[in-house]
């Protein structure tokens, strides 16, 4: 019997991934760039056990067994890992031995924090440790086939997922742009916003966007490539002003494309938009960008802020949003106001580890 | 002393006007199409009096005097009307006589129902009656210089405002596509949604969109021309299915462009989006489009529906939105639920009249 336990981080996209050019291989219509968060606050944790005595593959997610179906993304990832194990001449664990996989997130799935990205990154990374496969660009293509943005969670720091051009997806890989210690005073605050509204799942939302939005094509071809170049430069030169503006604009444009989808997909709510207004007002008051927001396919805000500005920003947030927090439409993991600061600060960023 | 009193209708854009190519002349970046509402429910009413004894031009809006400043849009419209009066050889009222102008809306300005469009249309139409100038394409260019969409309120029925190509704006005119009796069973329901949020004024929002949105150019050049053609065909052939889809998509895209503006402009709120979801769900249930929404630069919904479907739609709305109505975040002109139906139905559509 062999067993391995690994953790994988959450990553937050700065240039958004929205839209696939191949559904099954999960090939994106454009490059994306993300920042990986520290696993100290938020992570997925997976234990994979291989044993000659197991009769079949089984998987538990947050304690509940989930089906391990033929043709599923889970199955697909496992097959790809087996292929890599053979290619690498790895013989540590016989590929015929069945697996028991147990994965947990230390944050609520309902928080909408891309749990599937951390989850699939953790699964693939754990399997790679089990079968003794080195972390490589090719391994990111395996994670990608579990959940697109999972490929970015294999690395710490700033990571670019390349669209690629090949039909088989072998060049649609994630690469680290800068390691986790490159911009050590970069911090993230996550404001979790409660939301009762039924959302369109990301997979479906993307499909509909590619099919029906007349603006997404222009975004993909004319807007994103330039933003990728400029964000890379901003990261390389620690230019928070450029970083903030590109990040906020790309978040807005992703939600604009979702709204241009038919029927429209709406992920932000009134509280999200109040956070956006707050950030712009706050930056105006400060005289330069001290904070930048980004929103994924949900109402929660991720705010980027440099370490030295965290205390001031937090106190400003708590002044502006006490009523919302009190009447229950904004909360952080269900905890009362004084805890916002404690739990929302995800400081530093690291990749997968075992 | 001469006096004239006219009424002008509200018009609701189906293909949205958003963005100017000339600020002062109010020349739009794209064509737009609107439907003019009946003046029975909603209208602006203006009385213009000319007298040799008046010492200066004065204007009252809803009972309050407003400044009549040199260089204002008001002044500009008056000058243009005087120019047309001379060109038309009109001698009824001496152009040296000063004017007293009193204008009222029979609906709250706060309802966000394009009161300036009806207001300027009414002003210009009243002046044209006073000075005996015929209603013409040229007169629509005068109303346009008061408030862009005002040019569309001079006519009843379906109206197209042409972008035009000339620098002096003389070909940026409104023309009737179909008269008010062309589609007699076309009805509009207006759902007024309360909103506390501070909005970006339309003029500023448009300027910012043209300056900062990377998507608006694509909309203007690649999307709108085709939609104009197809909506004209849908109107000509009474094709409610095509009419509904084009109208909803264009409303969504206008709000997408507003969101892609930097900083973003957000006009719809959570209740607006719940109305959108409701309309899509309702149409799904009906098996075809029975209702179409459109939202201007505010949270209120205009729903298009054929006369024979009004009662069923109204009862469905009242089933879905009673809680919102009860807890105060959706209301119709501040009145309780049972009045929704009464006040929201603007049936039929007519142009200006005296």
Automatic annotation (TrEMBL), chains A, B:
Keywords: ATP-binding, Cholesterol biosynthesis, Cholesterol metabolism, Lipid biosynthesis, Lipid metabolism, Lyase, Nucleotide-binding, Steroid biosynthesis, Steroid metabolism, Sterol biosynthesis, Sterol metabolism. The keyword Endoplasmic reticulum does not apply. The keyword Lipid metabolism applies. Its EC number is 4.1.1.33. Belongs to the diphosphomevalonate decarboxylase family. Residues 188-339 form the Mvd1 C-terminal domain. Pathway: Steroid biosynthesis; cholesterol biosynthesis. InterPro entries: GHMP_kinase_C_sf, Mev_decarb, Mev_diP_decarb, MVD-like_N, Mvd1_C, Ribosomal_Su5_D2-typ_SF, Ribsml_uS5_D2-typ_fold_subgr. SUPFAM superfamilies: GHMP Kinase, C-terminal domain, Ribosomal protein S5 domain 2-like. GO terms for molecular function: ATP binding; diphosphomevalonate decarboxylase activity. One of its GO terms (biological process) is cholesterol biosynthetic process. GO terms for cellular component: cytosol. Catalyzes the ATP dependent decarboxylation of (R)-5-diphosphomevalonate to form isopentenyl diphosphate (IPP). Functions in the mevalonate (MVA) pathway leading to isopentenyl diphosphate (IPP), a key precursor for the biosynthesis of isoprenoids and sterol synthesis. This is Diphosphomevalonate decarboxylase. It comes from Drosophila sechellia. It catalyses: (R)-5-diphosphomevalonate + ATP = isopentenyl diphosphate + ADP + phosphate + CO2. Residues 8-174 form the Diphosphomevalonate decarboxylase-like N-terminal domain.
């Amino acid at each position: 019997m062999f067993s391995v336990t690994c953790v994988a981080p959450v990553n937050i996209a700065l240039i958004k991934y929205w839209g696939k050019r191949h559904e099954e291989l999960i090939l994106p219509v454009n490059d994306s760039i993300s920042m990986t968060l520290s696993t100290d606050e938020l992570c997925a944790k997976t234990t994979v056990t291989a044993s000659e005595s197991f009769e079949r593959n089984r998987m538990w997610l947050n304690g509940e067994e989930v089906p391990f179906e033929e043709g599923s993304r889970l199955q697909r990832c496992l097959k790809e890992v087996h292929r890599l194990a053979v290619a690498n001449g790895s013989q540590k664990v016989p590929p015929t031995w069945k697996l028991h996989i147990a994965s947990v997130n230390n944050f609520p799935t309902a928080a909408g924090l891309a749990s599937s990205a951390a989850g699939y990154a953790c699964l693939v990374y754990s399997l790679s440790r089990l079968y003794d496969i080195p972390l490589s660009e090719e391994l990111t293509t395996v994670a990608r086939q579990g959940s697109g943005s999972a490929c970015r969670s294999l690395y710490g720091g700033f990571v670019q997922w390349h669209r690629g051009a090949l039909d088989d997806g072998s060049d649609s890989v994630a690469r680290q742009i800068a390691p986790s210690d490159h911009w050590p005073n970069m911090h993230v605050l996550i404001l979790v916003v409660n939301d009762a509204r039924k959302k369109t799942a990301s997979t479906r939302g993307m499909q509909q966007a590619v099919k029906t939005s007349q603006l997404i094509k222009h975004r993909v071809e004319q807007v994103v490539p330039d933003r990728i170049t400029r964000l890379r430069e901003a990261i390389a030169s620690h230019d928070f002003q450029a970083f903030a503006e590109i990040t906020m604009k790309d978040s807005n444009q992703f939600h604009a494309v979702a709204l241009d989808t038919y029927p429209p997909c709406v992920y932000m709510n009134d509280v999200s938009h109040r956070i956006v207004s707050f950030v712009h007002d706050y930056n105006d008051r400060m005289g330069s960008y001290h904070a930048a927001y980004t929103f994924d396919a949900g109402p929660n805000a991720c705010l980027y802020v440099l370490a030295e500005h965290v205390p001031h920003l937090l106190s400003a947030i708590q002044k502006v949003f006490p009523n919302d927090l009190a009447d229950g439409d904004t909360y952080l993991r269900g905890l009362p106001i004084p805890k916002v600061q404690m739990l929302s600060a995800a400081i530093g960023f690291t990749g997968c580890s075992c």
